[in-house]
Specification:
355 residues, mainly alpha
Length: 355
């Protein structure tokens, strides 16, 4: 409903509808029921309706119109101040908690990203440095410690959210208490309207009750402030804890950097060994080629030796045959000495030729 549609009749209808539902017809309640409207205009019409209801009992003359106006003004002022104080405190606490939770979420996301980066780097180190099992195990321990720390931060964040939920529940409880106080105050106003004849005596008692209720509200507000202070102390402790975790994470990162440097040094050593190994492999290839050439020469020499041995065996066989023939001729004695000398001379020359 637009502001132009708010008038005395619509405010009266809204007030009666809220009272029929057992809801105190405050400015905000009437404005919400009308779905809009100026709070000042609604407050003016509500006061006019209250004054009109109070005028029905003006003939009793028990309480002056000025005193009723002062009581109504005091009630509205106290109600407005209490509502503003509570709304401001709730908004302040809610804003502070939302900011703290946002900061915690950001820090948690950063920690998770750092943990994932550590995990990825750890996996890379595992793949490259299979021989550095001790260093890898140390990195795994540090990563597990970081993961545990992140889980602890998540637990702290959950506790902070739980504390915020408890604070909201306490806010709702305070609102219910305020609603009950409003209902008691409404009962007080109804009693004033219905029993103006007894207002002089009842007014003092109800005023004392109202003051007591206001003191109770003030006590509630004080307790609320104490709770807010306690929450601020807890938030400070969480900040200190997060700072400690951040320092610990920095120390882990420094250790990881040192381990990375050691790994790079080991990789340099491995590269040097690889270069040396490559030189040795080249030397081995050369030696293998030389060995193959030597084997080829040995095979050639072996072949030549086999041929020479075969030739020597053939010569020995021929020599044995010739020796046997000469022995046989010498034994027979059939040949003359000249004839015998000539073959001997030929045999000697043949041996020399064979040798």
């Amino acid at each position: 409903m637009s502001r132009g549609g708010v008038n005395l009749a619509t405010v009266k209808q809204a007030k009666e509808a809220l009272e029929a539902r057992g809801i105190y017809p405050s400015v905000e309640a009437v404005r919400e029921h009308l779905r809009g409207g100026s709070p000042n205009t609604i407050l003016k019409y509500l006061r006019e309706l209250k004054n009109r209801d109070a005028g029905l009992f003006g003939e009793l003359g028990m309480v002056s119109q000025e005193l009723s106006g002062l009581v109504l003004q005091l009630h509205n002022t106290l109600h407005k101040e209490a509502q503003e104080t509570i709304d401001a405190a709730v908004a302040k606490v809610t804003t502070a908690f939302e900011e703290k939770i946002s900061a915690l979420n950001l820090r948690l996301e950063e920690s998770l990203r750092d943990g994932k980066a550590l995990a990825a780097e750890n996996e890379g180190l595992k793949g490259r440095l299979t021989t550095s099992e001790g260093v890898t195990a140390d990195l795994n321990k540090k990563y597990n410690a970081a993961t545990t720390e992140i889980a602890r931060l998540e637990t702290l964040l959950s506790a902070a959210k739980g504390s915020l939920s408890e604070s909201e529940e306490r806010n709702q409880k305070l609102e219910r208490d305020l609603k009950n106080a409003r209902e008691r105050h409404d009962a007080y106003e109804d009693a004033v309207l219905q029993e103006r004849g007894k207002l002089l005596d009842a007014h003092s008692r109800e005023t004392l009750a109202l003051q007591e209720s206001m003191r109770e509200k003030e006590d509630v507000i004080l307790r609320r402030d104490e709770q807010i202070s306690d929450l601020n102390v807890k938030i400070g402790a969480l900040d200190i804890e997060l700072s400690s975790v951040k320092r610990e994470m920095k120390r882990h990162l420094d250790d990881l950097d040192k381990a990375t440097q050691r790994c790079e040094q080991q990789e340099a050593r491995v590269d040097e060994l690889r270069i040396t190994m490559a030189g040795m492999e080249a030397t081995a290839v050369i030696l293998k080629e030389q060995h193959a050439q030597a084997n080829d020469r040995y095979e050639a020499k072996s072949t030549q030796l086999s041929i020479a041995q075969a030739e020597l065996e053939r010569i020995r066989t021929e020599l044995a045959e010739m020796t046997a023939k000469l022995a046989q001729k010498a034994a027979d004695g059939s040949s003359p000495p000249k004839a015998t000398k000539a073959p001997k001379g030929k045999t000697v020359s043949k041996r020399q030729a064979e040798q």
